[in-house]
Amino acid sequence: MATITTSALTRTFGPVTAVSNLSVELPEGVVGLVGANGAGKSTLIKMLLGLIPPTSGGATILGLNCLTDGLQIREVVGYMPESECLPLDVSATEFLVHMARMSGLPASSARERAADTLRHVGLYEERYRPIGGYSTGMKQRVKLAQALVHDPKLVFLDEPTNGLDPAGRDEMLGLIARVSSDFGISVVVTSHLLGELERISDHIVVIDGGVLQRSTSTAEATQLSGSLLVEVTDQAEAVMARLTERGATVAASGAPQSFAIEFADEALPHAVVQIVAELGIGLVRLQRRRHHLSEIFVASGPAPEVES
Amino acid sequence: MTVTPGGPPNASVIHDIGFRHYDGPRLGRGWAFRSLLRETLRGAFGLGRPAKVKIMPWVLIGLICVPAIIIVAVTIFTGSSDLPLSYTQYPIAMSLLVSLFLAGRAPYAVSRDLRDGIMPLYLSRPIKRQDYVYAKLLGLALAVWIFVSTPVTILFIGALLAKFPVRQQIFGWLGGLFMAAVLSLLLSALALALASLTKRRGLGVAAVLATLVLLNGFVSVLISVVNMQGSENAGWYFAALDPYLLVDGLSAAWLGVDAQNSFAEPQGALGTVVFTAALSLILTGAVAFLLRRFRKVGGV
Q: Are residues A247 and A110 in the same domain?
């Protein structure tokens, strides 16, 4: 079921078109929204939150109309901005209780859920100290917690890994994956780094210059296409020749005695093993190599910045 | 709670109860508005903040109450028949302390949200932009009202202890609370409009303090100059330019009590109309400015 459906959504700021004629369906689960800075990601989120009206077109989010139901949408949606957004002189607990109340939770529920949510994002004793003394990683957790404290059905996370070191980045990505799998909350996460989104997203949407480039399930994108790397002890050319006879597309790779086959049908690995056995040589490597998302999107205009 | 067989009955076990969903009521915009107002009020007195945030507001509350306590003590001791400062005069006489309180609290209410970028979080909650402005204004006005009404109420309690006529004192006190509310709203709107111009709190403090104190001084001087020039009947018009003198004059016009500064009393029915119009003009102007200011800032 789609959580968000946009139809011909367009927003212009004077002469600049931020989002252009965008029609896309985002399913439940983790959806990665990829685009370079200025691609229209933030404008899209603002429109979906009902904060700025589209110039034309429309969108429904959890069955609510973003043109007319802004208040109801913001009751059941969480938002984690990209920028710094925490008051420095209150404690995380005090801040979260306030934010839960701002989302409409009664006082007692707000207190209870603030403590719960901070525990889930991994803040314990620190939560009673003012936020000003927190590390970047802890602040990022508080930002995530304030988006989750009112138990939304959907959260928008804008560049949640910004400014984190590799370990902190991994933890944050793990946390986001848990938000979807354990908490059952749909996630729309933006990033300009494809490598990250590839790991946690069920679905990827790429926009560039406000135009939809591609909307595809991650599994489809990375599994159906791909290649098989083969390395043998000897007679690589003979193996390649036999495979070509069978109708496979074979390409020699740089390393000696190894080559790549385009993964066309599921029986291919068996064929390789059979040929190698018939020739009486050794098989060193038979590796399924999935495409990286970045390769898929190379064709789609200027590629987003890619983290290797 | 699971108890391991054979183990001590009070052995603690950590349960991971997992993520719990919330099925309770969501109270919506009105409740969110009240929560923001409450948070602004708590912030104004430093509640839920570290000790250093609490110092200024509470020192000022102490200072504004000291003269009231002295007045009460002297009145009871000397057996005087009236308070030397009335309920409506007291806040005007304490204008410097009130200005100091506002200079600290108005920037605290808004420039922090601007500087720390909290606006996007509020805007992604079930409120509208104007709700933010009104909640901040009412929250600050309520804080200033509590600040001003506390010593006024001390005077009232003193008057009751001194066995002044109860009925008359109750009306005087209620009049004092009402004019304190008008003063709080007017000052808060002006101070917030000034404070919302900058993200830097220090600058906001200086701007609010300078404006309120200098305005009061300039207008007082202007009035005495005009009066000395012989236009005895024109000077009071200028009192409408300063919030303290305006409210001082209005208490005389509306309630018929003596103003703290007799030169600020508006003359005749026309004077009442002019002062009332000035009040609504300044208030709506400041609120319109705030609404306009917050329509732009804090885009998500």
A: no
